[in-house]
Structures are given as structure tokens and as C-alpha cells.
Prior knowledge:
Elements: E1 3-7, H1 14-25, E2 30-33, E3 45-48, H2 68-78, E4 82-86, H3 88-95, E5 102-104, E6 112-120, E7 136-143, E8 147-149, H4 152-160, E9 164-169, E10 188-192, E11 198-201, H5 211-217, H6 224-234
Parallel strand pairs: 1-2, 1-3, 3-4, 4-11
Antiparallel strand pairs: 5-8, 6-7, 6-9, 9-10, 10-11
Amino acid sequence: MKSAIVVFPGSNRENDAADALERASGSRPALVWHKDSVLPDGLDLIVLPGGFSYGDYLRCGAMAARSPIMREVIARADKGTAVVGVCNGFQILCEAGLLPGVLLSNAGLKFICRDVHLKVANSQTMFTHRYSAGQVVRFPVAHHDGNYFADPDTLKRLEDGDQVAFRYCTPDGDETVEGNPNGSIANIAGVFNATKTVLGLMPHPENATDPATVSALGGSLDGQAMFDAIVDALSK
């Protein structure tokens, strides 16, 4: 599997994403600077990592979505290349029109940095087939603008098309206000495009893959299944 990670000024999770992909695939992804206009040939996967591109000025992800490399990312996505955007990467995908909806300021107007629980809403995709439908997993979050919003018609299309990937929940799997850290509509933590080839999510699966964080910090390894699933699907 051949993959690349796009790096913007202010990205800070590109190496974490590269480590997670290398653990799953055995190959180190290419790092592509946002001002480049060409992606490597033959890519199976493009990743937009977390961070604070352009310092989150204007709107989170809005300036990065107009970077030169995004024309190529959009062109590849339109041809079916798999794309994952995590946290700031999710914001960029929404600003670029590759995913529906927007990310607003958290309901509490505070930066959130902690582990959250998620329920797997759709386990029948290249990104999630190593999970079971309804499975509860634990990923960390680190964001101020992770409050996902979509208008009623868009939300209905997402629900009808099984485009919700993950929902925030309590440790017991209840999709309640108590389990929703940022006020996202319908507890949505991540969504797919209509063809399920593009995934955006606010929590950080790449930071739930390193055994060292489990022993040192009590972290989770629940994100590893996502990267293993991607390698399974794209290495065939």
C-alpha cells in the first residue's frame, strides 16, 4: 500500500499518523508539503493530519483547503483514491467540499484534550471493517472547533446513506449529552462521503495505536484496527 500525508504550516500530527501507518503496513508514508502541486503517483491513501493549519485563522481549515496541493487531493478523491482527514484534516475536508457539514466551536467554548468514547456506526467500509457495528472504542481528542453541524436535509442524507462513521457516546455506549464532548449534532464524531472513500473524524485514532502510551499513560490501542483495516482493503 502506498500512502502520503499532506503537511500544512501548523500541522502537528503528521509523524503520529506516519507511525500508525508504518505499524500497520510496514512502509513509511511520504510527507508532501502543502505548496507542492503534485502528489506521488500510484497512491492508495492520502491523509490530512491533525494540527492547527495556518494557526486556525479565518476558520479552521479554510485557508488550508485553498493550498495548492488540495487541487490534486480533490482530483484524486474524485477518482476514488481513499482519503482520511483527522481533526484539522476533517475541518479541511469539509472546507474543501469533500465532506458535508461544518465544524463549529465546541459548545462549551473551551479546548478539549482527553480521551472520549465512540460508537462505531458503520462497520462496512474500508476504514472500519475491523470493528463491529455498535462497538465502543476509546480515542483521544484535542480540539476547540469540533462541534459538527449539518442542516436537516444534509443530516437526513447522511443518516439514509449510512455515512455516519462514529458517534460520541458514554463508556456504556449511550449516545447522550453526557457522552458528547463538544455538542456535535446527533453525537456525530466522523462522517464518510457518499461512496465511503473519504473519511473525516475529529478524534485521533493515530494516537491510540502505540503500546508505549498504554503502559506509560493508560492510553488505548483502539485506533490500530482502523489502520489495519485500511491496509487490508488497499493492499489487495
